[in-house]
Amino acid sequence: MFGLQRFQSDACVSKCNLTGSMVRSGLGKCTSCAKLPERLGEHSRQFRRCVMAELRTQLGEDDDEDEPEYLQFKVILLGDGAVGKTSMATRFCEDHFAKQYKQTIGLDFFVKRVVLPGDIHVCLQIWDIGGQSIGGKMLSNYIYGSSAVVLCYDITNYQSFQHLEDWLFLVKRTFDKTPLPYIALMANKHDLAHIRAVKVDKHNQFAEENDLYSYFVSARTGDQVHSSFFRIAADLAGVTLTKPELEVAQKPTKAELVNHPRNDPAHPEANADDIAKEKKCSIM
């Protein structure tokens, strides 16, 4: 009887077609198969989560293409004292011009954000370096890491133009083993062109010989200040501007009426009526 029971027990054992486990015929499925629906459900949920994650990733990439691009550049203003570096930075960043400025000692900072075509947001960090820093030990540290260097001079001061050679030499020495940054030549006080000491030909020659970008501005009137820095930001960002876009960037310039003295204060003003009265006609 023991052998019969053993035979019947062996006869009741079969193989699961799904998992390969040995099970009793009466059970119909093994322990692994009993949990199979749960496992299949879990795999299905994991599969759905993976699909949704992939979709979110693709949608995120699509959204990134529509999001604006943000860039930041360091711009250095170099030049002799009193050429108008602080005036140009203040005019561009704050649209303000003060008749009197204190001399910049060391350096000063300005920040201006502009939006370029293509929804590209550019933040310009403008470093206003004092003119007396040309012999300072910290000047190379100020210049290092800059994206652009703007060499500034006063068109009514020829000496400030001559000293640009020294300023440019310091820039080249700082970037001796690295590529030079974007370098521009900016002539300030263009509103005083009638008393200019630096001819336009001299300006253009210096810019061509040293491969510099050329700008003429007036911090006092604001003429070409915004459009010049706007173009510098575009060049750094690799954006090509059209002429209408540059014209839009330039803010309207207000004309100023100056009441110049018409005669020497030390002498009384001549009046035509008084002169006529003083004249006497005599017939001999």
From TrEMBL:
Basic and acidic residues: bias regions: 258-267, 274-284
Molecular function, one GO term: GTP binding
Keyword terms, alphabetized: Nucleotide-binding
Region: Disordered, residue numbers: 258-284
Keyword Isomerase part of the UniProt annotation: no
Keyword flag Nucleotide-binding: yes
Highest rank taxon of the organism: Eukaryota
UniProt cross-references to NCBIfam families, sorted A to Z: small_GTP
Name the record gives this protein: Ras-related protein Rab-28
The species this protein was found in: Symbiodinium microadriaticum
